[in-house]
Write a structure and sequence with these properties.
By secondary structure, the chain is of the alpha/beta class. The protein has three domains: 5-72 and 104-185 and 285-366, FAD/NAD(P)-binding domain; 187-284; 375-452, no CATH class. 38% of the residues lie in helices and 23% in strands. It is globular, with a radius of gyration of 23 Å.
């Protein structure tokens, strides 16, 4: 008989993993500190809209949920740049038809995954359960029911922590489980605040619904992603200090002045600006890297618990879902006789350098989104990249390698993309006009970069 798997954390990764394991015949128990979001109003961690792309969609296929979820998304074909002078410019994500990213509700996606998992007879959810202590020698954990205050000590066979960036499982590694555990948490000096653009008077989208809107202002930026209800989730990313930092935007007058100065075209579609400003907290942004992720055959962490990233490449969820897919594929290599210690070790080795790569890419992309997208040379480079993707199926820009090429590991996408960027930025800086580009010659050089790349 297959052993029971205990999952800590019923978020996106934990719920998807539960479905995958249940389909393989395992009994799965999932413990979640929060109430059941399907029955109570629960803040599901960060409320920034999620961008679902190829890596995530491929993983959802393992749960037979890809088609259902794709009917619940709003496709976005590119970045729509809002300049300070009121002009706008679209920057497509890809030069190939059909390559878009998809705005999806975090809560809606989580609920769909929970429902799928709970429909399976070998999956059980336990909500309002706070993990107090994990004893890896005895392979037990203590859990407190947040409603009844009862405490139980339970036994586990294999424990997998998918409990997010503030993971208690990861914390137990530091305090009880792993000697010489390497851990890094790096906070940005920027935070974020969620705002909104409601539907128009006739229930329509007030701004273009097929793009991710960006107001790049060099030191800070605002973005807006469309929702199915014709609203937009707006997020302001800003420094804490300085004249217009979050810490100094401490009055309604200052907030209005800030928006009138830097986002004047948004004010007429954000009637609830001040109300949203007071209702939603200013939250922090951090990268988490750690190692090892496993303890023998006893425990493993994955998803944000192992590698939390800032949201600027839209890959946090996709990377966590890819964890689940890679883990599933590694399990399949063993057939019915899984060597769990070897499985956990192979998984962490295969994923660590790739999740480090997407963490670094996400930080780099913040600078690109808030500043470089308004740079004339960068805009020429993106135009050239789009034309190369149209002309040559073998070429993908760095963005496409990360977002649309689920067969390319993040580490390779990062290295190859950076080399391509360096070459193309130099070309685009030197040319007098984009008409002077010899695309065959440029593609030939890019092919050499790809073929000679050694990781």
């Amino acid at each position: 008989m297959k052993k029971k798997i205990t999952i800590i954390g019923a978020g996106l990764a934990g719920s998807l993993l539960a479905v995958i394991l249940a389909k393989k015949g395992y009994k799965v128990d999932i413990f979640e500190r929060r109430p059941d979001m399907r029955k109570e109003d629960v803040a599901a961690g960060r409320s920034i809209n999620l961008a679902l792309s190829e890596r995530g969609i491929r993983a959802l296929k393992l749960a037979d949920l890809d088609e259902y979820i794709m009917n619940e998304v709003v496709p976005m074909k590119g970045r729509l740049i809002h300049n300070l002078d009121g002009s706008k410019k679209i920057q497509p994500y890809s030069g190939r038809d059909g390559e878009v990213i998809n705005s999806v509700s975090r809560g809606g996606l989580n609920i769909a995954l929970m429902n799928k998992a709970e429909s399976m007879p070998n999956v059980n959810f336990y909500f309002n359960q706070k993990i107090i202590r994990i004893n890896y020698d005895k392979m037990t954990f203590k859990v407190k029911n947040e409603k009844t205050k009862d405490i139980q000590e339970l036994v586990f066979n294999h424990l997998i922590g998918t409990d997010g960036a503030g993971s208690v499982v990861r914390l137990s590694y530091q305090t009880d489980g792993v000697k010489r555990f390497n851990y890094m948490q790096d906070f940005l000096d920027h935070g974020y605040k969620e705002l909104s653009i409601p539907p128009g008077l006739n229930g329509e989208f007030q701004i273009e619904d097929d793009a991710l809107h960006i107001w790049p202002r060099h030191d800070f930026m605002m973005i807006a992603l469309p929702n199915l209800d014709k609203s937009f989730t707006v997020t302001l990313f800003n420094k804490y200090d300085g004249e217009y930092g979050f810490d100094n935007l401490d009055s309604d007058e200052k907030v209005n002045d800030f928006f009138e100065k830097y986002f004047p075209d948004s004010l007429n579609v954000m009637p609830n600006l001040i109300e949203d400003w007071h209702a939603n907290p200013t939250s922090s942004l951090a990268t988490v890297k750690c190692y090892p992720w496993s303890i023998e055959d006893k425990a493993l962490i994955m998803g944000d618990a192992a590698h939390a990233v800032v949201p600027f490449y839209g890959q946090g969820m996709n990377a966590s879902f890819e964890d689940c897919r890679i883990f599933s594929e590694l399990m399949d290599e063993y057939g019915e006789d899984v060597d769990w210690k070897d499985l956990f070790e192979k998984f962490q080795i295969s994923r660590k350098r790739n999740t480090d790569a997407i963490a670094d890419l996400a930080l780099q992309n913040y600078v690109e989104m808030r500043s470089h997208v308004a740079n004339p040379v960068f805009q020429i480079k993106r135009t050239v990249e789009m034309e190369l993707e149209k002309r040559f199926p073998g070429f993908s820009s760095k963005y496409s390698l990360v977002t649309f090429s689920d067969y390319v590991p993040y580490s390779r996408a990062k290295k190859l993309g950076e080399l391509q960027d360096d070459y193309l930025m130099k070309i685009c800086s030197d040319i007098g006009s984009i008409e002077n580009i010899n695309y065959d010659e440029v593609y030939s050089e890019l092919k050499k970069i790809d073929e000679n790349l050694v990781l």
